[in-house]
Write a structure and sequence with these properties.
By secondary structure, the chain is α+β, with helices and mostly antiparallel strands. Among the domains are: about 1-30, no CATH class; about 30-115, Urease metallochaperone UreE, N-terminal domain (HSP40/DNAj peptide-binding domain, Sandwich), CATH 2.60.260.20. The chain has helices at about 50-55, 120-130, 155-160, and strands spanning about 5-10, 25, 35-40, 40-50, 60-65, 70-75, 85-90, 95, 100, 105-110. Strands 3-4-10-7 form a 4-stranded mixed sheet. One of its GO terms (molecular function) is zinc ion binding. This is DnaJ-like protein subfamily A member 1. It comes from Microtus ochrogaster (Prairie vole).
């Protein structure tokens, strides 16, 4: 069954002697759910996992729409990356006219990283030894070293507001907009 689908019960409306009974028509209205989003017979959800779970496996319980609890398990050695999409077969919505078949439960993983400074320098060094080696860059004289800072989406607006965005205009004045004359 899907949103907006009509179910008709023919001849089941008000029944009065001498009158033909009417039909009862029910129109399904799908409601939003806090966890799941429906697309046809499939259910979609996002699952937050910690970095350690993404790298070292996890088990997570999920409460289903039919009041069961299923346990999602990743296997040791299986790495789940941020944005990965996996599915559980036969845990979606029931398929119309096939009551024993269900769609898929589709799960998108959101990997939560720890806060800055969560490891001491000693433990950070140990972690680096456990992970695959990172690629080192050989710096040349043609390269410039730059600093990476947190992105602030309001920074550009503040620069425009403070007049910094057009600071070159002071050195190269331009004429104003000219009105057309007839």
């Amino acid at each position: 069954m899907k949103d907006g689908q009509k179910i008709t019960f023919h001849g089941e409306g008000d029944q009065e002697p001498g009158l033909e009974p009417g039909d009862i028509i029910i129109v399904l209205d799908q409601k939003d759910h806090a966890v799941f989003t429906r697309r046809g017979e499939d259910l979609f959800m996002c699952m937050d996992i910690q970095l350690v779970e993404a790298l070292c496996s996890f088990q997570k319980p999920i409460s289903t729409l039919d009041n069961r609890t299923i346990v999602i398990t990743s296997q040791p050695g299986q790495i789940d990356k941020h944005g990965d999409i996996k599915c559980v077969l036969n845990e979606g919505m029931p398929i119309y006219h096939r009551p024993y078949e269900k769609g898929r439960l589709i799960i998108e993983f959101k990997v939560n990283f720890p806060e800055n400074g969560f490891l001491s320098p000693d433990k950070l060094s140990l972690l680096e030894k456990l992970l695959p080696e990172r690629k080192e860059v050989e710096e040349t004289d043609e390269m410039d070293q730059v600093e990476l800072v947190d992105f602030d989406p309001n920074q550009e607006r503040r620069r425009h507001y403070n007049g910094e965005a057009y600071e070159d205009d002071e050195h190269h004045p331009r004429g104003g907009v000219q009105c057309q004359t007839s």
